[in-house]
TrEMBL record:
Domain Methyltransferase: 42-137
Protein name, entry field: Methyltransferase domain-containing protein
Domain of life: Bacteria
Gene3D superfamilies: S-adenosyl-L-methionine-dependent methyltransferases, Vaccinia Virus protein VP39
Pfam families, per database record: Methyltransf_25
Organism annotation: Parachlamydia acanthamoebae (strain UV7)
Cited InterPro entries: Methyltransf_25, SAM-dependent_MTases_sf
Length: 252
């Protein structure tokens, strides 16, 4: 089972949703354009709380989402209920997800793909995506590169968000980058404060694989994908070795 399943528990999910209530506008515009071009069923693996999935559905697109985090999916379902939409949402990993649909577009935004840190999990995910992708479909995803290593390393930093009820969410984190494995570990501590008292605490470890510029190319091609484009996200600028993020557009 991939490491994504260990992430985004209750407090972490609530803080993430408060801190990221909407998809970035440039990213959302890009994926809306991709959805229009796809003209068919869409799959969003690792869909989280639905900040991309829900706007696409509201625009009339047929989108299925799956995620390993029950807390994220609960938030997504509640949002969908409020908006009176009823997408297919599945609690699953790449290992367990199955579908009889051939999707015209499969997309993973926001570099969530980097949460798959083991090569076996990466290959398993890509094989599942290849299997689910229509012959004339497109697979789009984003990764972070070694140029995106967070600084400073080994020093705690933090911030807080004030909730509508007056309680405070305190978020502390520390980064460690392993130069041998190219895995960045983020240790995150969430605290919920009410009336100047800590009432709930949660600690989670997030691990992200940061990639060398062309590291994924051979893996993708080995699965059977053809790499159509490698852009700096949401632009038509080709990503070079200095890019902090790379957006892949792949076809069969």
């Amino acid at each position: 089972m991939n490491k994504q399943s260990e992430s985004y528990r209750e407090l972490c999910t609530e803080f993430y949703v408060l801190d990221n209530p909407h998809a970035p506008l440039d990213a959302l515009r890009y994926y809306l354009a991709c959805a229009a071009e796809a003209n068919g069923s869409i799959l969003e693996p690792m869909c989280g709380a639905g900040r991309f999935l829900i706007p696409l559905i509201e625009e009339g697109y047929d989108v299925t989402g799956f995620d390993n985090s029950p807390h994220m999916l609960e938030v997504c379902r509640n949002k969908c209920f409020e908006k009176k939409i009823n997408p297919q949402l599945v609690e699953a990993s790449f290992e367990t997800f199955s579908s009889n649909i051939s999707y015209k577009l499969i997309f993973i935004p926001s570099a969530s793909f980097c949460l798959l840190v083991d090569l076996v999990d990466v290959q398993q995910a890509l094989r599942k995506i290849f299997e689910c992708l229509a012959n004339d479909g497109k697979f789009i995803f984003e990764i972070e590169t070694l140029k995106a290593v967070r600084e400073p390393q080994g020093i705690w930093s933090g911030r807080w968000i004030k909730k509508d009820d007056g309680s405070l969410f305190l978020h502390n984190r520390i980064f460690h980058f392993d130069t041998v494995t190219n895995i960045e570990t983020r240790l995150c501590r969430k605290e919920l404060w009410e009336n100047n008292r800590i009432v709930q605490t949660e600690v989670e470890e997030f691990r992200l694989h940061l990639y060398v510029h062309n590291e994924l190319d051979e893996i993708l091609e080995g699965i059977g994908f053809k790499i159509k484009n490698k852009f700096i996200p949401y632009t038509r600028t080709q990503a070079d070795e200095n890019a902090q993020m790379i957006l892949y557009e792949c076809v069969k």
